[in-house]
Design brief:
The chain is mostly helical and about 325 residues long. The protein has 16 helices and no strands.
Length: about 325
């Protein structure tokens, strides 16, 4: 177990290196805040969909992985992604209720920020560091699993943050990453993928997709710099966020993964996701739908920094008792 803890610790280092680069670039004013949206749009609507397409085509079509190619396996992954988000948000709501938070003082923002992990760009480099064997399908399984996370965020997550279903519309779901998963799965399931996953297309998708993770992590580091300068620290909120996101929710997700009769590859993804700190998306939603961005920012920042210590521990426990790495 010590070796796994050590390897997990090293796997998290590149994430924080990119955070540090972004933090330093913002401090030096090399990347201005008004540039963030354009850069993120490039990464999220071009780079990340290419990364999804490449990995799903690689494992489900080119290598014809029997497990990943089945519709049943994909549905398992999607449902588990949605369910673990639901469990995390429910646990965060219970903590917020115990803190007597109300709408207007951080109830919605704390619930979504502490309940939702950074399920994309924090996870990808960790998987790339931990699972280096040729043909290992873990990264491809992640993108199938994350479709359930995307569905939760852009349906129940938005409903929670905006206080009702009235602000929901179809366009909220029509985002690049979600469409890329749907498109890639249809190609793989229908057999048309073999006519699309040609060497020039795959190489282009691989090269474009490779830039999405570093770009998003660097911009996130820029955001961390902005967050540290624009709010007053609330020790009670910090402690509650760390307890919820890095202690209570990981334990619940590991228990869920242990209980569910799903494929071990999906359990592996759930183990990794359990240990991940809060995502930036809830903070963005709080700004857009009248939440409390300061509350989300504190939970986001504190859990991100503390996860450097807790992530290896939860990965080791999950590998030992739920799904061996």
């Amino acid at each position: 177990m010590f070796d796994l803890v050590l390897n997990s610790f090293f796997a998290a280092i590149p994430v924080f290196v990119f955070f540090g680069i972004g933090f330093w670039l913002r401090y030096k004013k090399a990347i201005a805040p008004e540039h963030d949206n354009v850069i993120l749009q490039l990464a999220m609507d071009v780079g990340y969909p290419c990364l999804i397409f490449y990995n799903i085509m690689k494992y489900m079509v080119l290598e014809a992985n029997e497990q990943m190619s089945s519709i049943g396996f994909s549905l398992q992954g999607i449902c588990c992604g949605f369910l673990e988000m639901f469990v995390g948000v429910a646990a965060a709501y219970a903590v917020a209720w115990c803190m007597r938070l109300k709408i207007g003082t951080g109830l919605r923002t704390f619930t979504l920020t502490a309940g939702v992990q950074n399920y994309v760009f924090f996870v990808v480099p960790v998987i790339q560091m931990l699972f280096t064997a040729p043909g290992d399908p873990t990264l491809g399984v992640l993108f199938i699993h994350n479709m359930g996370c995307e569905i939760f965020i852009w349906s129940l997550g938005v409903i929670l943050m905006c206080g009702g279903i009235q602000n929901m519309h179809v366009g909220v779901l029509l985002r690049g990453p979600l469409l890329a998963v749907i498109f890639s799965l249809i190609l793989a399931w229908s057999g048309l993928g073999q006519y699309v996953a040609l060497p020039p297309i795959m190489k282009s998708a691989e090269m474009i997709g490779a830039v999405s993770t570093p770009i998003c992590l660097i911009i996130f580091g820029c955001s961390l710099y902005d967050l540290t300068r624009n709010f007053t620290w609330q020790p009670r909120m910090l402690a509650a966020g760390i307890l919820t996101r890095l202690v209570i929710v990981p334990a619940l997700i590991l228990l869920l993964a242990w209980l569910l009769p799903v494929d071990p590859l999906i359990k592996r993804i759930m183990v990794i996701q359990s240990a991940i700190p809060s995502a930036v998306i809830p903070v963005i939603l709080a700004k857009r739908y009248g939440g409390c961005p300061d509350v989300g920012a504190q939970v986001l920042l504190s859990t991100t920094l503390c996860s450097f210590v807790t992530l290896p521990v939860w990965l080791a426990l999950g590998s030992r008792f739920v799904a061996p790495f």
